[in-house]
Amino acid sequence: MRIDINSDMGESFGAYTIGHDAGLMRAITSANIAAGFHAGDPSVLRDTIRLAKASGVAIGAHPGFPDLVGFGRRELNATPREAEDFVLYQVAAVAGVAAAEGMRLQHVKPHGALFNMAVRNAELADAIARAVAAFDRSLILFGLPGSEILRAGRAAGLRVAAEIFADRAYEPDGTLASRKKPGSVIHDPNVVVSRAVSMVKDGSVVAVDGSVVKLGADTICVHGDTKGSDELAARLRRAFEDAGITVAPVGA
Amino acid sequence: MRIDINSDMGESFGAYTIGHDAGLMRAITSANIAAGFHAGDPSVLRDTIRLAKASGVAIGAHPGFPDLVGFGRRELNATPREAEDFVLYQVAAVAGVAAAEGMRLQHVKPHGALFNMAVRNAELADAIARAVAAFDRSLILFGLPGSEILRAGRAAGLRVAAEIFADRAYEPDGTLASRKKPGSVIHDPNVVVSRAVSMVKDGSVVAVDGSVVKLGADTICVHGDTKGSDELAARLRRAFEDAGITVAPVGA
Amino acid sequence: MRIDINSDMGESFGAYTIGHDAGLMRAITSANIAAGFHAGDPSVLRDTIRLAKASGVAIGAHPGFPDLVGFGRRELNATPREAEDFVLYQVAAVAGVAAAEGMRLQHVKPHGALFNMAVRNAELADAIARAVAAFDRSLILFGLPGSEILRAGRAAGLRVAAEIFADRAYEPDGTLASRKKPGSVIHDPNVVVSRAVSMVKDGSVVAVDGSVVKLGADTICVHGDTKGSDELAARLRRAFEDAGITVAPVGA
Amino acid sequence: MRIDINSDMGESFGAYTIGHDAGLMRAITSANIAAGFHAGDPSVLRDTIRLAKASGVAIGAHPGFPDLVGFGRRELNATPREAEDFVLYQVAAVAGVAAAEGMRLQHVKPHGALFNMAVRNAELADAIARAVAAFDRSLILFGLPGSEILRAGRAAGLRVAAEIFADRAYEPDGTLASRKKPGSVIHDPNVVVSRAVSMVKDGSVVAVDGSVVKLGADTICVHGDTKGSDELAARLRRAFEDAGITVAPVGA
Fold first, then answer.
1. B-contacting residues of A 36-65, CB under 8 Å?
2. How many helices (H) and strands (E) does chain B have?
């Protein structure tokens, strides 16, 4: 039994600092590196790749909508053609900076609203998968279990990784409960950690209606912008290891 | 005797169209493709690479200052570290989109104020050369004969190409006369063409003070945003060929 | 009987030129001036206001989504709070530049996707109307007849102007037929002109299903970015005048 | 004897937070509010104006270069025309949002590199002053004593305010010593406070070469982005009051 721990990284921008990258890098196994459209800038990007390399953490591109002021969290009605091209551009930029630092990309994880829209929007999911496959067919595409993006990734000949969220409530169909619903975000670190371990061990989670939802779990997301996220990631890693679950990059 | 004809391409942006890319592609041998910071967007970038491929034109990255409203033409006092990183990012993006289209980059030509500042600013020139060399040591770096950027490129282990401008007056030290000086831009296509041929054949140009300046000439720039630039490029190519000068990409 | 003719203006940006502002200014009575978020820049904005003043054309702010590469034409899921604040900011900027040129704003017309979303989205429409009313209660808010934005404008104590489009097909409920439907955009200038005159005279239009839709018509939009738009505007103006319809700014 | 205490405010952006605005507002008398080009966004701008109003703090516009990633701290070779227009745009935006909140602008303080360049660049200083005067001749323009911007402001018919920096070393000509020089930034709060009081009382400062430089002092700047800046501002205010110096907005 094994799991990858991923987190969004490199989301600082110019004079603005966000996240706990240095602390998180000690616990996670895969870093999703902001590509400059929703967050990040060329120097932050390069520094984050260097930090990942020094920390032995695998890296992926984290492309988002071109919406810096919205941090990529607002749905944007881009055409599939536009989405395909801006995902390709962002993956290319991160991969090329990584190459200059002697690293290869392991994966691609769409960010924020792009990630969320690709759960159900098949056209958008196909556009993203086409962009990734056109760039490098060996990349692993991250997405929710059962989502359109995983379907699209497989159809495009890519490896995919099913991603779980231990701090979020699930609907019976395996999607995440809306953040607007009470109780949809779990704040107690003890609950998050024990939930994470059982999600990986059992391959399932108890949904908001009490039903049991089967979920593949290749990688688990730790949110990096909340206070104490670095400590949570460290606890999570220890809990997995204590439970006999190997913690390693999904592409290893 | 041989020469490469290059032009800036892919500088349209969203709903905004600029340049005569389709016409120019029929005459030039190397396209400098805007990388999205001073001009261009991910879809324009990809379309331009496809057009270059279909036209048999070699491609290069054309990184500029992050100044869309200024079209990269305004000097910006970025640090060498910032410049190195945003050049690397832009080269990586163009190279990766090209790879997805089955093309390899031939060269890098800095744009506008970045190009001009790198003529004399050694620190900036070194930063640009470091970025290119870190990404791919086989790339050819374009710059003015005698400029810091060519010195820096050689020092970084890169091939360099000396670029001439047939529509611009030269100072006795081989730099371009300021656009603010009367007569510094040559508008008569007949003069431009005959001047171009003699610059390549003689390896020299008559400067504003009447002195003869020795200039290497590996590639000649055709400005793409002026009316009739596509016809000028076609005339230039014929004139070179009529004079027995081979017209081919600098990296061929 | 009277009508205002409006057109989007000042949508050029830096080195990029779009539209036929100078020609259109001779025919229209109200200019919707881009505020810098979807198009326009501070110098274009000021020049356009000067041109309107010299042409005796009334001016309005034309706020859009912060989406330059998408020209404000893509739906963005901004919160009402965000929309209220970026509309206020844009209206303030245009009004202040106008004041420096000795002009007062007459109206506000939301741009592109913001305009379209405010037809049906009541929360967004209220946010826009709140922003306009907070800035200046004497401004006239433009919108489709029967739209949420007109309802919201009236509720906020603003004057509103019902806007018609002579080159677009209408649904039976008075909304514009989607551009994706065949025949939804009318290209024949003769049809557009005669349709415009009858829409103003009759206060109604024949919808796609043949039914007659009652429409108030305070102002008619001429699209400025299509070829020949300046000539169409001139023809339209003459046709209105020939039909005995007074052509004047809506706020006059 | 009196002094105004000013600080840069509203420089957060989207998901990014910077500065200690709430704490500083309790001690300062004038807030320089970022206008969205180097920092700030429409919602941050509005919230900051509301905070200033609730705190009884006078407000000014804080226009900067259009360089978000560089936080407006990098010199940009904009033309005087461009600078005039983007300063006007930014002042208009801040003034209009303030008007919607029932506040009037007191002053304008250029930001970062724009402020620094306007110390010696007469053309740029005149452009800034023209923009401010065109918008509202009652605004007070902030600048270094002896700078071109104060000269330009007076020539444009504006009131000006001489600004001092208690945490910076001065050259014998009254300009700030470059941050690159050792000792040019004073970090000890005790020194900063006592220096501030004597600068206001004596109307002079001891320069880096030991000479005494006469300086008018209408307002003193507290940097808001350093740790403890809110406490420093509070101490500074108490020290002024203890020394019998009235602390009040420069326009009061």
1. 36, 41-43, 45-46
2. 8, 10
